[in-house]
Design goal:
alpha/beta, TIM Barrel, eight-stranded parallel sheet, about 30% strand, 11 helices, about 400 residues, 2 domains, Urease, subunit C, domain 1
Length: about 400
């Protein structure tokens, strides 16, 4: 099988979140969907490969990175991931144009039978689209006082039999829950035992309860700072407990509206190598303003800001992950650390060491960027999936 050789651009990747490789001129060879070699300068030969000069695509200052990994995303291009298989695939394709080669499809709280039907459709879509890693159940086991845009009527404490049915679909990658709910810690153990990731979010948990959940196997904090108690110098809460614990990875929505840029910088400093950029995108991402649904809830999008209809409650975002990357770099995060937070760190969060890195043995997911950090071409498993990935990003409502 003919391989792919991409060369002549700045190559930024990571062996681990804290081991960032930044070569001024690098190259990558991919065969049978896997990275087989990388190098610097002109130390390559075609050897029957399709040869791509990254500098001709990305221009002066072109950059090669691994494909982005979005582990918290509800949809895009007007479509939500609780929709039909065709709608799911179109939304995934929309995010691919923004450099996302692997994606976890997030579902908001809903009745159990509705969730099972949604998971069945996601499983079918995953069979057609290798970029789909699985599903993220963001609820229904969350705190009703901190439910954000979730339907309060759908919320309840975890029930072992119900959770087992959802996990048995084989497509649940992660579950967000509030560990302080009755049965919450037991649910964390059940999720982890099934091979899924237990995430803490939409929670009023104190630091002690958060630590008990981490000890039980929780390893991810869902959209840090949002829908949870703030940090207090005598009451650290879930954010302080997670930031201080090396077992935890912390999501952040870097759109300038969900979290102030100063706090984003503070989080990167407090938890180096453990911050995962996520979009928390809803159907209006890569689409226009207007009226949408997030689950059963009506959402108004105005100037790119999504809120529950008639309120100021944030309802996901219209962010794409490439724009999140550009944002944090413009806010002072070093480029290598920013790229790691959108590639290797989220891949590590879902226990996929073969993703998010351009190292031998990893999946052949690759993006060529121009000097403004706009994706210009995208490959998944060594196959070009977006030929002209110029991102059309509208200004954010804030930031």
């Amino acid at each position: 099988m003919t391989g792919l050789l991409v060369h002549s651009a700045r190559l930024i990747t990571a062996n681990s979140p804290g081991d960032i490789r930044d070569d001024p001129t690098g190259w990558v060879r991919i065969r049978d969907g896997i990275v087989t070699a990388t190098g610097t300068m002109e130390g390559w030969a075609p050897d029957g490969d399709e040869v791509v000069d990254a500098s001709q695509i990305g221009g002066p200052g072109a950059i090669i990175t691994s494909g982005l990994v979005d582990i918290h995303n509800h949809g895009g291009a007007t479509f939500a991931f609780d929709g039909s298989i065709e709608e799911i695939l179109q939304a995934v394709d929309a995010h691919a144009a923004h450099g996302v080669t692997r994606i976890v499809l997030s579902l908001v709280s809903a009745p159990p039978r509705a969730l099972e039907a949604q998971l069945t459709r996601i499983a079918a879509a995953r069979g057609e689209q290798p970029g789909i890693l699985g599903a993220h159940l963001e609820g229904p086991y969350i705190d009703s006082d901190r439910c954000g845009a979730h339907d309060p009527a759908a919320l309840h404490p975890p029930e072992a039999h119900e959770l087992a049915r959802l996990l048995a679909t084989g497509v649940v990658q992660q579950v967000t829950l509030a560990p302080e709910l009755t049965g919450g810690i037991e649910a964390v153990r059940q999720i982890v035992a099934a091979g899924s990731v237990a995430a803490i979010g939409h929670t009023g948990a104190d630091a002690g309860t958060t630590l008990r959940a981490i000890d039980a196997g929780a390893s991810l904090l869902t959209h840090t700072f949002n829908a949870m108690p703030p940090v207090h110098h005598r009451v650290p809460g879930p954010i302080g407990a997670a930031a201080a614990d090396d077992r935890m990875i912390l999501e952040i929505i870097a759109d300038g509206s969900h979290v102030d840029r100063t706090i984003v910088r503070m989080l990167f400093a407090a938890a180096p190598g453990r911050v995962a950029l996520v979009s928390d995108a809803m159907a209006a991402a890569a689409a226009s303003d207007g009226e949408y649904l997030l689950g059963a809830q009506k959402v108004t999008v105005r100037d790119g800001l999504a809120t529950l209809h008639g309120t100021s409650v944030l309802a996901g975002s219209t962010l794409t992950l490439d724009r999140a990357l550009r944002n944090v770099v413009s806010w002072g995060i070093p480029l290598g650390a920013a790229i790691a937070s959108a590639t290797v760190v989220p891949a590590r969060a879902i226990q996929r060491d073969d993703l998010g890195r351009l190292e031998v043995g990893c999946r052949g997911d690759l993006v060529i960027w121009d000097s403004a950090l706009v994706p210009r071409a995208v490959w998944r498993d060594g196959v070009r999936i977006v030929a002209d990935a110029v991102a059309h990003n509208r200004p954010l409502a804030a930031g």
